[in-house]
Amino acid sequence: MGALLARRRDALLALAVAGTGVAAYLSWVAINDQEGLVCTGVGDCHTVQSSEFAEIGGVPIAVLGLGMYVTLLALVVARRFWSRTADAGIDRPMASATFGVALSGALYSGYLTYLELFEIEAICAWCVTSAVIVTLITLLSVPDLRVAGGSGARPTV
Question: Cα–Cα distance between 129 and 61 in angstroms, integer?
Fold first, then answer.
């Protein structure tokens, strides 16, 4: 079980790093007026990035996504550090925070995907990639809720 937990935490870290990279790229593109936006030929990233839905209050959605991924990355790294210390009590709120931030991101990504399909009528491959990443983070963080909400016993790492 310890090896499985370690692999899952490695996957969470890798996904948080990948999500941060995708969101950083999209943020850079949004801030620099879509200069150099590379789309894989599937979809129409430029149309999505320049739509009325690409900002909230003048802040690009990509920048908000970057904030989410940096938060997730910080939580995952912190949990890896604290899982090796005697202060295991901090793991419970961090497990809940990781799940909560990821779930919020996944739900908002679902809404954005709806907008892409039915309002904008264009798909951004980068946005879909981000939605998949945050959904995977959400799913991989669920087992930590059971451990964090359980009897207080910690799994062997």
Answer: 15
